[in-house]
Amino acid sequence: MRLATPRQLKALLLPHQQGTDHVRRALRNLLEESPALVGRSHRAQQSYWYCTPAGLAEAAASGELAPTTGRTTGKRIAASKTGLREHGLALVDTVIAFHQAEMADHADWRVEVTHPTPAGTLVPDAVVLQANGKSAFVEIDRTMSYARLINKLERYDAYRSAPAAGRGNAARPPRSHWQETYAGPDLDRPFPLVLFVFAPAPRRAAPATREAAFHERVHQLGSVRHWLTVATTTLPLLTKDGADQPVWRIAGRDEERRALAARPKGQ
User: Fold this and answer.
1) CB atoms within 10 A of CB 106
2) CB neighbour burial string for 140-171, b if at least 16 within 10 angstroms, e if fewer
3) Tens of pLDDT along 208-248?
4) What DSSP state is assigned to residue 61?
5) For the whole model, what pTM was predicted?
6) Which of 69, 73, 110, 123 is most buried, judging by how many CB atoms fall within 10 Å of its CB?
7) Which residues touch 54 (CB under 8 Å, ≥6 apart)?
8) Residues with Cβ within 8 Å of residue 159, at least 6 apart in sequence
9) Which residues neighbour 84 within 8 Å (Cβ) at sequence distance 6 or greater?
10) Spatial separation of the C-alpha atoms in residues 164 and 174, rounded to whole Å
């Protein structure tokens, strides 16, 4: 996660605390460290907090973060006047929903990981390692056009056939990049789920309306339906009912909302 509000941090880290006072005091203490471990931005009477480079280094040293090269802070996003900040906050709300449902720990998310494909680079909004041991790609949509959403699905299609980096191992059959990265030793593991969460945005159709239009377009992509499982929900529904509840629709295959764990075999 690149940034979060005190409310979001309380929901993740101190769910049983009353109010956000304790979180705010802890954030101010981290801000007063030398060098500061967190930074903040104010806009519209709301504070947005992010780790500084020193904070990221401290978290990595403590084991709270995987030692990933090129990790960036959320300073630019927190100060943004565009929809970047709201997009980032919608992702945090999604993380909270999965965390509260015990479907994935908040530390098991990676943001904007680059994946090579023959059709160009694929950069999911996030990749989550779920509690069931399977990874899933997560896309947050607030303002993206339907054409760009479908193009992203085509990138997932291309990624499915992307070869693994390196020379491989002559002792086993060749594996694709996604199998090397996400399947582990299980050669029969299916391609990771692709989860779309439609979030509110000013001057845009309601999330449920955009979700329905997206399903209509995916229904026309017969080539995608055979191998890729795309599940969608809206952020209001996800946060209200919970990520483990029947809030998901399987794009191109099923009109009924269901829990991810209850989707039919083969989906």
Assistant:
1) 18
2) bbbebeeeebbebbbbbbbbbebebeeeeeee
3) 999 999 998 887 776 555 678 999 999 999 999 999 999 99
4) H
5) 0.89
6) 73
7) 33, 35, 36, 37
8) 115, 116, 117, 122, 177, 178
9) 76, 77
10) 8
